[in-house]
Structures are given as structure tokens and as C-alpha cells.
């Protein structure tokens, strides 16, 4: 049996495209970050008091997705830590993954070598433990809260408020916060006290343009791909597609990586622009699949109702979708949600690009929406059936 494993591994190793594929993955923090010199300089200036063991101001960083916020923050902290490791420590928490106040506090405590049970304590108790722990250690603690909008939208900004006030309870140690978000409007929703404290310093990351993305891709391609595996037209196309999509470097790098994987799968030794086109379709399909499979149960049911309804007609009204949904809920023996909620679900599905809901005026009958699908029926069915056993058993 181990022959099979060796055989597969040896063919994988024989790829002609990648030298180090992992350098194109989103978690990799490169040694140089072109076109972010100003942001790096500004963060270093704000954090400079660390050199004198003094607490820096809190920083609030915002900019659209893929504009380098996380990479730049990690890069600066890593490099400052190399120089002043006796003056501070830093803890990075992604609050989309650790998306409750409990998990965030537990993550921070665990980084400080303090074991925390998975559940069972109050957040107030965790906070007390954190203060106690920090009072034992000397240095300044920089806490990076990445994607904080995700957590605050679900749980409110109480934990941020507590963090910004924690220094009053600390003796030797001090906390500085770096909050990162890609939702620019999010700042306005914060409690004014949190806003002014977290936003002592604000840094904006603008989107990259196509030329900047080309530089980023070229630099990364040099490290990750074999020398002759790529030509300029491929880099240009990846950069142009990602620039159109609000200047997102992650998207540009994903396009390049997936195009490389497609070329390698086909045994080629060079990536072509048609591989990039295929990569674009593949990435979009994965994105849609991910959205669909993580939808809440009733949203999935509404979609199935739409699929059934569209067998006989080309579009459906909101009322027709609701009727079809009620029938399904009844058949499955689940409690249905209100028509108002179904209407909200339809808006959400429209916003993420799964359906199209066009408002039409029906004269004296008022306005309604004409609902149709914006993605293929196959992918909806596949994602929902594969992610929800109850719906799958009804469908089969
Ligand atoms: N200037 C740059 N040079 C090289 N690589 C970059 C640059 N900016 C971003 N990247 C790369 O692009 C990807 C996305 O960047 P990053 O995660 O920092 O974006 P972000 O702004 O934090 O996005 P999000 O808000 O979605 O988390 C990462 O792989 C990162 O290494």
C-alpha cells in the first residue's frame, strides 16, 4: 500500500509550475510589502514608544479586504519584536474565527500560558484572570483584534470598552490595542467612548491599482513559481481582474495560485491566460458554494422553495416564494418563519448574489419583487444537499 502513497507523492513533487506553492497562500507574510511603505512607516512611528518601554497609542486600521492590513500589521510587529523583545509582547486574535468575547479572552489567556476551560466561566471571570495574569508580567502587551466588526456585530462592543479601560486596573503592564476592520462604516456604530479610545490613531489602507498589484504578484511569483512558469501577460491579467474587484491583493494571489494549480494538473510547464480564466470561474464557484453551504436552515429552505417554484415559471413573486416555502416547512414538520422574515432572507440572498430580486410595479396591486436565480440550479442543490441532512433526505 505504501507504494501507492510514494507514487502519488512523487508525481505531485514532479510539478513543473511551483517552486514553493505555500508562498502564495494568504497566511504567508512576505519579507517585503511593496506599496505599503507609508502605512508601515506610520505604524512604526506610532509604536515607537515601545523602544522606551512606554505604551503606544491604540490604533484603528481600516480598508477594504485584501489591502494588506493584516500582512502589514504582522510584519511591523514581528520586526519590532526582533529589536525590542524585552519591552513588549504581542498577541494576534482573528475575531472572525474566535468570534465570541469568551473565545477572544480565552485565546489571549492561552497565549499568556494560562489554561482556560472551553466553556463554563463568565467573561467577567476571564477578564479578572487576564488582569491578574498581566499584573504578573512586566511588559507592554499589544493586542491585535483582526476583523473586529464580525465579533462586534454579533456580541456588541462591551469587550472593546473593557479592553480600552483595562489599563486603569493594571499596575506594571499596559495594554495597547490594534483594531482592524474592512467595514469602514463599522466605526460609526461603536460606542463613542470606544471609538475615541480605539481610534487614538487611525490608518487607512487604500485599494491597490492594477500596476501595484502587478508589482506584488511579480515579487511573489519570483519566490513561489519556477522561472519559466509564468509570463507577463498572465501577471497582467491576474492584476487587472483583481483591480476590477476593488484592488484586492488576496484575490490577485488566489487567481495566480489557482491558475498555477490548473496548469500543473494538466501537466503543463507554463501558466497561460486561459488558465487564469478557468481559475476565475473555479474561485467564483467555490465562493458561491461556501456562501450557500453556510446559510442558516430557513434561508436554505427558501432557496429550495424558489428552485421548486421556478420549475413552472421563469420568475416568482415574493408571495409565491412564501407560499412554496410554507408548503415545504409543513412537509418537513418544521416551524415556519414569518413572511417578513422570508422577505428579509430574499434581500440577503440578493445582496450576496445568489438570486436577483427586481422590484416591479403592478399598478393598483402595489409593488412586488420578481425573483430569479443568479447562479446555476446545480450548484445550489449540490451545496444545500451536501450541507444539510434534513433537506437532503427530503430531496432524495
Ligand atoms: N503590499 C503587499 N505586498 C505583498 N503581498 C501583499 C501586499 N498586500 C497584501 N498582500 C498579500 O495579500 C493577501 C491579503 O492581504 P491581507 O490579509 O493583509 O489583507 P487584509 O487587508 O488584512 O484583508 P482582510 O480584511 O480580508 O483580512 C496576503 O496574502 C498578503 O500577504
UniProtKB/TrEMBL annotation:
One of its GO terms (biological process) is cell division. The keyword Ribosomal protein does not apply. ATP binds at residues 67-71, 208, 220. Residues 55-209 form the AAA+ ATPase domain. Residues 303-384 form the Cdc6 C-terminal domain. Transmembrane segments: none annotated. SUPFAM superfamilies: P-loop containing nucleoside triphosphate hydrolases (SSF52540), Winged helix' DNA-binding domain (SSF46785). It holds the Pfam family Cdc6_lid. One of its GO terms (molecular function) is ATP binding. CDD domains: AAA, Cdc6_C, HLD_clamp_RarA. SMART domains: AAA, Cdc6_C. Keywords: ATP-binding, Cell cycle, Cell division, DNA replication, Nucleotide-binding. Belongs to the CDC6/cdc18 family. Involved in regulation of DNA replication. This is ORC1-type DNA replication protein.
Amino acid at each position: 500500500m505504501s507504494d501507492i502513497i510514494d507514487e502519488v507523492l512523487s508525481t505531485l513533487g514532479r510539478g513543473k509550475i511551483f517552486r514553493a506553492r505555500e508562498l502564495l497562500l494568504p497566511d504567508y507574510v512576505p519579507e517585503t510589502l511593496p506599496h505599503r511603505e507609508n502605512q508601515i512607516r506610520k505604524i512604526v512611528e506610532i509604536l515607537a514608544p515601545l523602544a522606551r518601554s512606554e505604551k503606544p497609542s491604540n490604533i484603528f486600521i481600516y480598508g477594504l479586504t485584501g489591502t494588506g492590513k493584516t500582512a502589514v500589521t504582522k510584519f511591523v510587529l514581528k520586526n519590532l519584536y526582533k529589536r525590542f523583545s524585552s519591552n513588549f509582547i504581542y498577541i494576534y486574535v482573528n475575531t472572525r474565527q474566535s468570534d465570541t468575547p469568551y473565545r477572544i479572552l480565552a485565546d489571549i489567556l492561552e497565549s499568556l500560558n494560562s489554561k482556560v476551560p472551553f466553556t463554563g466561566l463568565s467573561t467577567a471571570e476571564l477578564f479578572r484572570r487576564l488582569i491578574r495574569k498581566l499584573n504578573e508580567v512586566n511588559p507592554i502587551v499589544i493586542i491585535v483584534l483582526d476583523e473586529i466588526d464580525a465579533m462586534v456585530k454579533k456580541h456588541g462592543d462591551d469587550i472593546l470598552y473593557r479592553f480600552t479601560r483595562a489599563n486603569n486596573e493594571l499596575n506594571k503592564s499596559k495594554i495597547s490595542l490594534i483594531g482592524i476592520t474592512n467595514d469602514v462604516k463599522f466605526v460609526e456604530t461603536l460606542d463613542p467612548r470606544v471609538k475615541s479610545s480605539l481610534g487614538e490613531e487611525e490608518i487607512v489602507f487604500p485599494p491597490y491599482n492594477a500596476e501595484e498589484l502587478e508589482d506584488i504578484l511579480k515579487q511573489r511569483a519570483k519566490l513561489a513559481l519556477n522561472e519559466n512558469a509564468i509570463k507577463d501577460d498572465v501577471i497582467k491579467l491576474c492584476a487587472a481582474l483583481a483591480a476590477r474587484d476593488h484592488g484586492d491583493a488576496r484575490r490577485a494571489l488566489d487567481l495566480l495560485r489557482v491558475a498555477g494549480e490548473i496548469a500543473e494538473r494538466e501537466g503543463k510547464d507554463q501558466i497561460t491566460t486561459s488558465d487564469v480564466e478557468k481559475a476565475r470561474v473555479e474561485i467564483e464557484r467555490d465562493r458561491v458554494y461556501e456562501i450557500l453551504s453556510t446559510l442558516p436552515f430557513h434561508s436554505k429552505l427558501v432557496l429550495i422553495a424558489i428552485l421548486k417554484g421556478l420549475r413552472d415559471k421563469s420568475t416568482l413573486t415574493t408571495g409565491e416564494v412564501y407560499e412554496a416555502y410554507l408548503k415545504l416547512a409543513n412537509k418537513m414538520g418544521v416551524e415556519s418563519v414569518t413572511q417578513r422574515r422570508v422577505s428579509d432572507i430574499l434581500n440577503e440572498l440578493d445582496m450576496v448574489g445568489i438570486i436577483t430580486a427586481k422590484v416591479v410595479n403592478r399598478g393598483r396591486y402595489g409593488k412586488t419583487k420578481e425573483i430569479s436565480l443568479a447562479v446555476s440550479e446545480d450548484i445550489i442543490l449540490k451545496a444545500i444537499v451536501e450541507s444539510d441532512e434534513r433537506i437532503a433526505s427530503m430531496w432524495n
